[in-house]
Amino acid sequence: MSLTIAALIAQAVERLKSVGFEDPGREARLLVAKATEISAARLSLEAREAATEQQQSTLNSLLARRVAREPMSHIIGQRAFYKHDFKVTADTLDPRPETEALILAALERPFSRLLDLGTGTGAIAFSLLAERPTATGIATDLSQGALSVARENAVAVGVADRVELIQSDWYAHVSGTYDLIVSNPPYIALEEMPSLAPELSYEPRMALTDEADGLTAYRKIAAGAPAHLTSGGWLMVEIGWQQGTDVAALFEAAGLKNIAVLPDLDGRDRVVTGQNL
Fold it and tell me: What is the mean pLDDT of the chain?
């Protein structure tokens, strides 16, 4: 029996609601848009149109994946972050709204040469370069899979000619100095992993945890920063909301000055900044 687009949405809402999703209406519309290849903005306009059997079957498959808590970004293949849409796969960390606090902090400082350590999708580096048309940068990641995704995103955002992508374990294959170093490293402590949301089990574990106390990456990033920053250059990192004091202490131990712990839009500690003087 053929259903309308509106009926597909209603069915999806009920299924998602039955298993406890907080915003089933929004998620249902995203999934129906993906299944029907109708933009979310046009779903209301085409609500009375009949859905094909293939569209119904595709939606059922997408719903099964979402009910299994696969991230929505993996299912639809992208995530909106700052001013752009970024391709997302199982090889990359899903860009999150709280990371935009790092973008806002970085854009308060002048920079012409950027280094992004552990770039993942490239969301941080490419968002910054898009806002600074004369700036250039290096973006690194240990994962070749992540770098492949980042290359596609660099083209989509329009910064591919101004960024070099390098496979590197933090600073291992990085040379030169930079006005700005940014990073959103793995900061979840091993003991916290079992309590995470089930969606995170689909993301690369190496992008989430250091398998230790959550501070391993910050130790390496802070220690190497003075040798890779210009005089007056800044290091800015995203942190877990309880890590401000510890990460600020690592910045101080590395000799950085003007250290600050900045909040995200929810008022939680989210970014630590320090200057090389």
Answer: 94
On whether 194 is known to bind a ligand per the annotation, the reply is no
Quick one: which H or E segment has residue 230?
Answer: strand 229-238
Q: Is residue 1 predicted with pLDDT exceeding 70?
A: no
Domains defined for the chain, CATH in brackets: 5-68 (1.10.8), 87-275 (3.40.50.150)
Q: What pLDDT does residue 196 have?
A: 87
Burial of 34 (0-12, 13-18, 19+ CB in 10 A): middle
Say if CB 111 and CB 132 are below 8 A apart. yes
Per DSSP, the three-state class of 188 is strand
Q: Is position 241 annotated in a ligand binding site?
A: no
* Whether 94 contacts 122, CB under 8 Å: no
Find out whether 185 is annotated in a ligand binding site: yes
Comparing CA positions, the residue from 106, 151, 149 lying closest to residue 127 is 106
> Is 209 flagged in the annotation as binding?
no
In the chain, the percentage of residues whose pLDDT exceeds 90 is 88
Where do we find the tokens 């779903």?
Answer: 43
DSSP 62-104: HHHHHHTT--HHHHHSEEEETTEEEE--TTSPPP-GGGHHHHH
Contacts of 269 (CB under 8 A, 6+ apart): 239, 241, 242, 243, 244, 261, 262, 263
Cα 180 from Cα 176, distance rounded (Å): 12
Beta strands 229-238; 178-183: pairing state? parallel
Give this prediction's pTM.
0.90
Q: Does 95 show up as a binding residue in the annotation?
A: no
